[in-house]
Amino acid sequence: MPASLTNTHAIRGAIARLDDPNYSRWEAQIRRAGGCRQPIHLRGRVEHWDQATGELLHRYNTRTEPDGVLRVPCKTRRASRCPSCAETYRADTYHLIRAGLVGGKGVPESVTAHPCLFVTLTAPSFGLVHTRREKNGKIHPCHARRDAQKCPHGRVLSCTVRHGADEECLGESLCPDCYDYTGSVLFNAAAPLLWKRFAEALRRHLAKSGGLTLAEMRAQLVVSFAKVAEYQRRGVVHFHAVIRLDGPDGPTSTPPAWATLALLAQAVQHAASVVTATVPAVDGEPARVLRWGHQVDARPITLDGELTEQAVAGYIAKYATKAAECIGTIDRRVFPTEDLAALPVRDHARQLIAECLRLGALDDLADLRLIQWAHMLGFRGHFSTRSRHYSTTLGSIRADRAEHAIGEEISTGRLPLFEEDTVLVVAEWHYVGRGFTPGDALLAASLAGTALPLLSAEFGSDAR
Ligand SMILES: [Zn+2]
Ligand SMILES: [Zn+2]
Ligand SMILES: [Zn+2]
């Protein structure tokens, strides 16, 4: 739909909303949703009954709300879907990660003395790709080779360009016909299993070094971690993790003296180099043994050095709100019947998606569910995970905020104050939809102070 037509449509919708006698209530809902781009619409009711007297203390029903629904934030972690809710998620993740490094949110400050590393596990190479090489502030040529060979497809495998940070070709292969798209997709699919095996091997190595069985070690030492997946431009995931040694009760207890930082570093290198995941032989191709790339980075986190706790928490929180769309694929499922040539993605991503669809159709690889995860280039793991003892949980950070919000409602007289255990709360909610009509989106953007030209561009793509 042309932008001008869409705009007329949106403006008409916005005027209708402004004319609605219930407008101020609608505006209040939108303001409370804090700039959410796709608020969830709920229909339902909540009643507070006094258990002793059977008296109805307070009743709320969405019937009286604009359009009969309550709009609440979508709470997504994906910045591509809702920048505002993703920002809340990012901030919560930051505090949670930081608490595990320096204390706070119920974690004692003594946690700073526990051996702790910031570890990056990468994928191996699946072929040469255009890369921006930066060393000591200088940009180096991409892949300068004096006697560069020609590949079997007649392409010279050399690139002397000093690439800019935002160049389209970054992450694209020097020869698409040589590139191992199969390996790349299978690595992404195997990455969650490789991580699980890495964590197991790490524990085994530590136990062996302490002369203990795994069960015996559990009484002295637990390994706590927080990890996040990041897509590299070439379309493979790698993991960043905070790995920390604690006593048996987590961050509140001291690890044994033999569990040193040096031992942790050694265990990380060992575990990363030994674990593998095997994908069965299919379609005339031999079985593949997948493993981490050689570059395993493990660095201590210091309060004032190069890698501070703020830097690490910021890094993990940033990637917790991103997914594959950042490297040029799309933010929705791809169906096998779709015309891949028409997808608005980079060629490299298109090839990886096509490979997911091809391999996903093979019975022997059905478990990898590659068709369902084609838009994620084969990766189906969680983006951001933490072990039970890492620090606090996102849930408790959110509960703190919710309690604060309820406190505010009570103090400003919007909610009656009840004794918790004498009141029976009856609530019933139904999901009835999500997002905005074009007119509502226009008004919501102006309430949030978003630039209008940007918004009308979005209508163009939304109104397909
Ligand atoms: Zn949202
Ligand atoms: Zn290049
Ligand atoms: Zn080639």
Salient structural properties:
464 residues; alpha+beta; five-stranded antiparallel sheet; 13 strands; 35% helix; disordered C terminus; binds zinc ion
Describe it.
There is one protein chain. The protein is α+β, with helices and mostly antiparallel strands and about 475 residues long. About 35% of the residues lie in helices and about 15% in strands. The protein is built from eleven helices and 13 strands. The chain has helices at about 5-20, 25-30, 85-100, 180-210, 215-220, 260-275, 310-320, 345-360, 395-410, 440-450, 450-460, and strands at about 40-50, 55-60, 70, 115-120, 135, 140, 220-230, 235-245, 275-280, 290, 295-300, 385, 425-435. The strands form four sheets. A five-stranded antiparallel β-sheet has the order 11-4-8-7-12, with helices on both faces. Strands 1, 2, 3 and 13 form a four-stranded antiparallel β-sheet that branches. Strand 1 and strand 2 (about 55-60) form a beta hairpin. Helix 1 (about 5-20) crosses helix 10 (about 440-450). The protein starts with a helix and ends with a helix. The structure holds zinc ion (3 copies). One zinc ion binds near residues 38, 73, 76 and 82.
Q: What's the arrangement of secondary structure elements?
A:
Elements: H1 3-19, H2 23-32, E1 40-50, E2 56-61, E3 70-72, H3 83-102, E4 116-121, E5 133-135, E6 138-140, H4 181-209, H5 214-218, E7 222-231, E8 237-246, H6 261-274, E9 277-279, E10 288-290, E11 296-300, H7 309-320, H8 347-360, E12 384-386, H9 394-411, E13 423-434, H10 438-448, H11 452-462
Antiparallel strand pairs: 1-2, 1-3, 1-13, 4-8, 4-11, 5-6, 7-8, 7-12, 9-10
The structure holds zinc ion (3 copies).
